[in-house]
Structure formats: C-alpha cells, structure tokens
Predict the structure.
Amino acid sequence: MCGIVGCASSNGPASGMLVEALKRLEYRGYDSAGVAILDPDSADPIHTVREVGKIRNLEAKLAGVEIRGRTGIGHTRWATHGRPSQENAHPHRDPTGAVVVVHNGIIENYLEIRRRLADQGAEFSSETDSEVIAHLIARNYDGDLAAAVRTSVRELAGAYAIAAIHKSEPDLVVGARQDSPLVVGIGDTSNYLASDVPALLPWTNQVLYLEDGQVVAVRPESVAVTDQDGNPVPGEVVEINWSPEQAEKGGFPHFMLKEIHEQPTTVSDALLGRLAVDDSEVVLDGLGLDADGLRNISRIALVACGTSWHAAQVGKFYLEQFARIDVTVEYASEFIYRDPVLDGNTLCIGISQSGETADTRAAMRRAKDEFDCHVLTICNVAGSSMAREADGVVLTHAGPEIGVASTKAFTGQLVCLLLFAVRLGQVRGTIPAETTRELCRGLRGLPQELEKVLRTSDAVKAVAEEYYESRDFLYIGRGVNYPIALEGALKLKEISYIHAEGYPAGEMKHGPIALIDDGMPILAIATQGRTYGTIAGNVEEARARGGKIIALVTPGDDRVAAAADQVLVVPRVHEALTPIVNIVPLQLLAYWTAVSRGTDVDQPRNLAKTVTVQ
Ligand code: M6R
C-alpha cells in the first residue's frame, strides 16, 4: 500500500526520475501522488507538487514547471487516514517547511502524538497519520537529518517506510523502515530509495534491502546504513536479474493481459532445474531442511491471503494426496488471532506473491516465535521481507507482477506447491515412482498446454461480451478445482466489480441454488477427473432452473457440453495439473469482462497490489 521513492543524483534533475519510478509503483496505490524536490538555488528550496488521482494527473501538473533540484522524494497513495485529497496527499511537511516526508504504513499512535504536539502549539494541515512524522523530525533536527530520523522513529508505533529530506542538506535523502518494505538502489553517480525493486530497474539492478529498525542516508556518491542507535551496519548489495522490460507492458494494452500471456514462460521458469532429467524426482533447494528434517514434519499449516490463499487450498490437495500429511489452510489475517495447535514438528508455509503482505508475515512470525515451527515461504520476490525472514524459500520465478489482479504468480505458486508435495512424498515414501514420473512429464508439457489455452482467448472474449452486463455470477467446481472456482470468482469481482461467488458444486443444493433464476450465468469447471460425473449432475440441475451455463470441459466432452450454453475447451492434462490449466480461461474471462465494462483493469478501485497493513 502506497509507494515511496527517493533520489539523490549528481547528474540531472530528480523530477523525471521520481515520476517514472512512481509510475512503476502505481500498483501499490493510486488515489493521489506527489513529489518534493530540493533545489538549493531556489528561494524556497523545497518544491512540493501534489495532485489527486493517478500519477498522470501529477505529471500533467508538473508539465511546464521547471524544477532543477537533483534530490527528491515521491509518493503514490492508497488512503488509510483521510480521504484522497490534495491536503492528504504526500509529501507532508512540518509547519516551517524545513522537513518533508513520504510514508508508507500506518502510525498506530499518531493521534496521541498529534494531540501532544497540538497542545504545544503545532498546527496540522492534513488528516493523515503521516504528517506527525515531519513534525517530529523537524523538532528533533539539530543539523543531522539521519540522527533526527533515528530519534523520531523511536516515538512511532506501527509500520513505516519513510523517506525524508531537509532544506539544509540538499544532497541527502534519509530512509527508515519498520514492517514496510524499503530498498536502496545503488547507481554509479546517483543512489535511490523505493518501496519495491521494479521502480528502480531502469536505473539500477544493484539493490540493498533495508531491514526493520535500520536507517539509511542516501547521497549521490554514498549510501550509509545504521541501526537505530546510529551504529554503522554493513549492507549486502544484491544483483537483481529482472529486466526493466519485464516491468513494462510490452505491447499489451494492460499488464494483466501481458501477465496472463506470460504463463507458459513463467511456468517453465518455475520448473527450471527442479525436475531430474529422467523425471524420476523433484529437486528443490533452499528449503532449509534436509531429508531427515522433511521426514520429521508431522503436519503443515499453510498461511496466505487472497489469491495466494486459493493456491494454498490447491496445495492442500497436493500435499494430502502425494505426501499423505495433515494440512490446514489458514487465512493469515485469522491465524494471527486464533489459538492454533502447532508445535516444533509443524511446517508453516507462507505463500505470497509480494513477500510483503502484512498479515502473512505476521502469521509466519507467530508460527516461528510462538510455536517454534520451521517456516518456509513460497514467494515471488527474492529479497522480500518473507524471503529474508523465513527458514527456507521456494521462489516462484514469475518475474515482476504489476497488474493488481494476480495471475502468473498464482500459477507459479501452484507449480511450486506441487513440486514441494512430490518432494515431500518422495522422502516420506508416499508417492509411487510412476506417479512422480507422470507428474514430472506432465509439468514439462504444461507450457505447451498453456499456449493452447491462450489461443482460445477470442472464444473467451465472446463469452465475456455475452455476459458482461450481468449483476451476479456463480462459479462452481469440485475437488482440486473448487479453489479454482473461488479464484475465478475473485478475479471477476476484483476487476469487473460484478458480484461473483465461488462454490463447491455439491453445496449448491444446500442453499445457493436459490439464487439461480432465468439468465444467471454459472461458470462450471467440468473438466475430466474424479468429480466429473457429480459436477455434470450439478450442471444439469442449474440448467433446469434457468441458469446460463458456461462450461469448462476437456476435448470430446458430450454430457456437460450438451447442457451448456457456452463451452470453453481446455486440453486434457494430469488431474493434478488441471487447476493450472483451468484458471487461465477464468483469468481471461475476468479480463475481457472488465474490458467490456470499461473498468480500470490494472488498477481496480479500492485495491492495491501489496497490502502492507493489517
Ligand atoms: O502478495 P500476496 O500474494 O501476499 O498478496 C495476497 C493478496 O493480497 C493478493 O493475492 C490479492 O488477493 C490479489 N489482488 C488477488 O488478485
């Protein structure tokens, strides 16, 4: 939520870089944006420009304004305290205008601080929690901005990533983090700060991940990290192998469509080096557990949010079927407040695209600190908070995912969960060698099967054009494809704003069938597998009540196809792989429906890509 950037450059004005970098962070929030640039030659050395709405509005406001400063900070907002408005847009300043800050996170004790400062005569110009940070830094400033930031953050409770500038230190941006991500980009003659790596890719692929409690002083020629007491901390610079183009649309009208179409490649990348050449085994490094450690696991708790939670639901099937182990799937936001029964033999797996989701991070921490679980993460961002905090990491290798609706990261998660289930099944002796070979072969062939599904995009578009004005949608599936019904429904509601529900098809008779009336669209996942017969019956029941059936079937199907109004055909694959194939037409259906409705596909209302607040 919210994206922040900072730049200390020795060559050229900062404003262009800041706006470009903000555009690359716009998926984090987009209700207002702003920049503050330090120009020591100007009478008022800090020039702040803010605008409501998307970054293009800020850009339009900046057009024609010459701001020559080479040091600055920027922000794109996802409102938490105070409605989207110019006053609440960041950057925020102290009343004298000496200090300007941008902030991502939530300051839980801001009211307390605000009241105290107000009692001392301070006046505030926004409703945000963030403004108090500028006030505190200004009060604590004594010629050393980094020291003032260190002193000020001691007073803050909650989560923050901050970037601050001071009018008397024209080459300096100071950053600090606690429970919100912040990366430092290392360039040749300029250095940078950003909430996330994709923002920096056009300028550098050398980054340093700031840890909780650290403060960084970024100057054009140097980067100095300290702990909160001011002791220098040696930061590790890592090279990112994502290219700037991966974070661009590459000719597609939307990131989401591009990311859907990348799935043959991203699935293949997720498999790279993980299948033995003879398909006899799965090789997974980085688990932080050897074969004995894996054998000692007695149960698994999967924690995640949103789409990643749906991946966990599929993962439960994989782990139960192939590793014969007890698995629970928890919403991370609920897990934090429950009394789960876990112990040192429980493996907790946090699943996350971003590796930054606050609830999932908190759940993983709790599993580790309170229950002594071994904690693994399946995540897409190397160097993210979860990847650094977990005992083991399985990277999904999907590349940067920018569209707010998760697509390629989801299929990457499914591949990794299946690989892990097979690996665990091998060491536990619960998966027959022939099954391993079938799955490995099936996985190898998956990219080609996904290509075939993508070629049906026009057929899916035609279905979307038929139903895009519907008020409600039902998605039904069974077994390993029930979570795909949930995920299909989530995709549709996120980007088209149509009310959609996913149900296990067998539950229809227990209530939801009452919703069906003439013309209500029902998407039935009825591909071949062990639940085919029963779901075919459910389709016929829905049809008999006037529902319009859109059926996902495998080639040669006649029973469900006969009862359906529209049929989408997907290739026949091993049943365990059907979720990875079946989700793709549902992603496309959501996409084309949103396009028909004219909604903002990549940045749907009220959402943000990375949810770093609980
Ligand atoms: O980065 P994460 O996978 O942890 O994010 C979890 C959810 O916020 C995310 O999947 C969300 O539901 C997406 N918008 C779904 O498309």
